[in-house]
Backbone:
């Protein structure tokens, strides 16, 4: 493959965008329920009070649909000139879609904007950490299917250690280090024993589920009060910043785990793409032979990135228990690790775009709960399905031939 | 050393380095890991550890007891119950193992097929559910004569699963989307569709609906008949699974399609150069894979007379992955692996009864496959010889079976 040959930009993205735009303008607009919807921008306890925006739902549907179609036209023009649609344009497209969906669901009712956005972020945090673990591991060329297991390990340790020691700090430290040690199994098998990485990943998930289920059944269930009753971290309000309307309550009034995520994502992006360390890591993932030739220790680089990725996922696990639920539950990850895997591919192995995709899933979880309350007529099963269908459409339409790190899943044997 | 001795020691080394030895050692190691977890979580053992240096025997006795009781209960629940008061009851456990192993075998074949093609079908659950939707619809909404009804329902299940598998294969071939992500997403989509259908009385919901999603029980004509009479619950699902094993063996080892599938699995570029349509092969592989999973779907939908619920897929789609891995994606391997994990499912309840949570078997399952996944690790642990390339063993085998003659 000659890297200088530009890949041809297809018309799939514009087509998908246009169809989504038509769906919105037709079903949410012209065929939508007549009535007003109020977007509540402020909560009662906020310092600065903004008036809610009240808008006719049908009008909102038509306007959003029209905007989405405009973006589709822009995307088509880009494609004709063989340019990709920028990520931020796609993000705006998604945001408009989300707003129109909220308006349609809550016709004749109100939308608590800050509550929905804030909860979506909290729910997205474990997915974000999980996808960071995936990015760190796969960028150096080790397939990581074991995110689910890493998250579960972290969640378990955070809950149990926090309860026993009564210290959240220790809980987080143990969650991160145990998940890191757990990832060392993946790293060792992949690098030293040259095992099939997907297989090891799948098996590690089964192992993590098996061990946590067993210990849960054997210990936590009987003696939950002394072993599995950590409660949650305190909500920290950052002064001044948390008074900003909308953004304040969403971003600056959170538990520690959310702040960690907000720091970790840009930090990882910086290390990965702006430092020598990150360049080396990516070189190992793209062309290990070349990296080895210039003196980079391929095995060691891979080992530590995978291990540190595990620590990230451990933090994500902690976010599940002491950052949100307040206790460990049997198989509480329930597929989040696999969602994180999908999010990573959807975000093209990039920390920032992967996190944006993770937010979509966080949003969908809260949407399911909230939509049931405001418009019980819509079958909840369909709302449950939305993020998965959107991912399928995105993978098929937008991402297409997603280019994984070139040496992914290939063990490197020094010649 | 005479030439003959030399040849036998060569052959012995070859046996030691072979896959079978490694598999057996991995299974033993897996059970040891499970034993370790049973011991360290046992209360008597932990108490005995407290005074370990004054009376170490207590700790050892406690450890021995818990392991013996645990695996003893597994044996009683999955193979043979010597305490039972009648012969039927004594051999009942092994028939339960067969019943629970059958869908694992069928679905394991499906997943194994994709491994041979270099794909990874993580969507067994979704395909199983699609199969169950179709099979349940035929079984509850159509009226057909005895046997025919059952066969039509099984075929519907296979077709339903195949449809989803083919769709994934098509999307992959057409757009290059990764099959792992597609199958994961379709798992969630399938379970939502399934639940939705079971909420609507016009579709699949039971008539005397109580609000919880649940389908009508399958018509009696559509139920899989019991093999050994009503005393045992093992049914025709087992026969279908065994047929699937034979079909799989023929398909992969003897047929042209299988040859193409394996070619693509070994080296897609070379296969393409040799004139194999790789993209089409991916579609065929995903469809065939899902068809085998569909056999398991028929088993789940028609094997019980109380009507399916959303969790009736029983996680078989995921368990099948470990079955395929343990079985090395070969027909006989998957058969044995499916039976082993079926035994784990059958023996779980009797472990529960004596207070050892059967979840430990999940650990055993994972440990076995983990050891299988890394041949160098097992070789290092047991100081086994490296894979031998001599044909000493083949020569002995040839002479023994009087085939082929001298080399």
Residues:
């Amino acid at each position: 493959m000659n890297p200088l040959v530009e890949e041809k930009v297809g018309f799939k993205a514009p087509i998908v965008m246009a169809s989504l735009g038509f769906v919105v303008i037709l079903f949410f607009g012209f065929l939508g329920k007549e009535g007003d919807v109020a977007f509540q921008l402020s909560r009662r306890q906020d310092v600065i009070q903004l008036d809610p925006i009240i808008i006719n739902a049908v009008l909102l549907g038509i306007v959003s649909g029209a905007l989405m179609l405009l973006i589709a036209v822009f995307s088509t023009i880009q494609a004709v000139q063989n340019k990709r649609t920028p990520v931020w344009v796609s993000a705006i497209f998604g945001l408009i879609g989300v707003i129109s969906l909220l308006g349609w669901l809550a016709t004749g009712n109100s939308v608590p904007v800050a509550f929905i956005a804030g909860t979506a972020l909290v729910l997205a945090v474990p997915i974000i950490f999980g996808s960071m673990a995936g990015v760190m591991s796969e960028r150096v060329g080790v397939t990581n299917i074991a995110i689910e297991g890493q998250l579960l390990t972290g969640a378990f340790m955070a809950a149990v250690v926090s309860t026993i020691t009564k210290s959240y700090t220790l809980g987080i430290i143990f969650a991160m280090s145990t998940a890191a040690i757990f990832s060392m199994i993946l790293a060792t098998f992949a690098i030293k024993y040259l095992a099939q990485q997907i297989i090891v990943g799948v098996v590690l998930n089964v192992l993590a589920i098996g061990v946590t289920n067993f210990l849960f059944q054997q210990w936590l269930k009987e003696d939950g009060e002394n072993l599995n009753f950590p409660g949650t971290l305190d909500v920290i309000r950052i002064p001044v910043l948390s008074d900003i309307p909308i953004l304040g309550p969403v971003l600056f009034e959170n538990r520690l785990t959310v702040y960690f995520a907000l720091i970790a994502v840009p930090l990882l992006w910086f290390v990965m793409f702006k430092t020598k360390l990150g360049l080396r890591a990516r070189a190992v993932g793209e062309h290990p032979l070349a990296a080895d030739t210039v003196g980079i220790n391929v095995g060691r680089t891979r080992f530590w990135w995978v291990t540190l990725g595990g620590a990230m996922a451990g933090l994500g696990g902690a976010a599940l228990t002491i950052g949100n639920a307040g206790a460990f539950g049997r198989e509480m990850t329930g597929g989040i690790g696999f969602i994180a895997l999908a999010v990573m591919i959807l975000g093209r192995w990039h920390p920032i775009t992967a996190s944006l995709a993770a937010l979509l899933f966080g949003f969908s979880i809260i949407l399911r709960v909230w939509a049931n309350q405001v418009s019980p007529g819509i079958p909840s099963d369909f709302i449950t399905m939305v993020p998965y269908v959107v991912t399928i459409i995105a993978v098929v339409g937008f991402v297409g031939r997603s280019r994984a790190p070139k040496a992914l899943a290939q063990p490197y044997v020094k010649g | 050393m005479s030439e003959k001795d030399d040849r036998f020691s060569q052959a012995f080394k070859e046996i030691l380095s072979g896959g079978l030895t490694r598999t057996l050692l991995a299974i033993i190691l897996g059970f040891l890991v499970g034993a370790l977890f049973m011991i360290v979580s046992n209360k008597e053992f932990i108490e005995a550890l407290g005074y370990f240096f004054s009376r170490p025997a207590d700790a050892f006795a406690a450890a021995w007891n818990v392991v013996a009781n645990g695996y003893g209960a597994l044996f009683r629940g999955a193979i043979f119950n010597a305490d039972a008061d009648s012969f039927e009851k004594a051999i009942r456990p092994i028939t339960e193992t067969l019943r629970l192993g059958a869908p694992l075998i069928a679905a394991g074949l499906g997943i194994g097929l994709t491994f041979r093609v270099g794909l990874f079908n993580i969507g067994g659950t979704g395909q199983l559910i699609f199969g169950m939707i179709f099979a349940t619809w035929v079984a509850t909404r159509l009226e057909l004569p005895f046997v025919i009804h059952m066969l039509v329902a099984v075929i519907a299940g296979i077709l339903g699963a195949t449809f989803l598998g083919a769709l994934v294969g098509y999307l992959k071939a057409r757009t290059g989307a990764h099959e792992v992500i597609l199958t994961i997403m379709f798992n969630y989509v399938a379970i939502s569709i399934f639940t939705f259908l079971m909420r609507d009385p016009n579709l699949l919901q039971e008539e005397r609906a109580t609000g919880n999603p649940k389908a009508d029980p399958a018509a009696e004509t559509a139920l899989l008949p019991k093999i050994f009479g009503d005393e045992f619950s093992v049914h025709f699902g087992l026969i279908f699974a065994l047929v699937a094993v034979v079909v799989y063996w023929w398909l992969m080892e003897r047929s042209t399609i299988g040859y193409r599938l394996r070619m693509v699995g070994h080296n897609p570029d070379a296969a393409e150069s040799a004139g194999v349509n790789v993209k089409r092969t991916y579609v065929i592989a995903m469809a065939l894979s899902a068809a085998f999973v569909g056999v398991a779907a028929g088993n789940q939908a028609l094997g019980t007379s109380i009507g399916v619920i959303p969790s009736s897929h029983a996680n078989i789609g995921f368990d099948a992955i470990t079955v395929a891995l343990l079985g090395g994606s070969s027909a006989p391997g998957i058969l044995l692996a499916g039976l082993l994990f079926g035994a784990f499912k059958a023996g779980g309840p009797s472990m529960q009864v004596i207070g050892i949570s059967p979840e430990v078997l999940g650990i055993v399952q994972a440990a076995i496959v983990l050891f299988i996944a890394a041949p160098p690790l097992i070789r290092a642990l047991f100081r086994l010889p490296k894979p031998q390339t001599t044909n000493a063993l083949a020569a002995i085998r040839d002479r023994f079976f009087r085939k082929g003659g001298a080399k």
User: Anything to note?
Assistant: Residues 115-329 of chain B form one domain. The mean pLDDT of chain B is 87.
